[in-house]
Specification:
Layout: H1 8-49, H2 54-61, H3 65-76
Helix pairs in contact: 1-3
């Protein structure tokens, strides 16, 4: 069936079918990233306390300096 013969509903269904596996993978990865962040946060806080530079922490973790500051600021409150 040519695309020109498809109804709008059929086009939407095809688009959702194509989107679904990639979108689901993204949701799974975001959940995994949240868990990693929970594990990483206290390690970053300890590294800052041990005077590891923000630049080095950023290079090792992929975190931005702003995130590192926010995580260490939250720990001190």
């Amino acid at each position: 069936m040519a695309d020109s013969e498809l109804t709008p509903r059929m086009l939407r269904e095809r688009a959702e079918e194509a989107l679904r596996p990639v979108a689901q993978r993204r949701v799974e990865l975001l959940a995994e990233l949240e868990e990693i962040d929970r594990q990483l946060r206290p390690l970053v806080q300890k590294a800052v306390t041990a005077e590891v530079s923000y630049r080095r922490i950023s290079a090792l973790s992929g975190l931005s300096p702003n995130t590192i500051r926010a995580w260490t600021r939250t720990a001190g409150e």
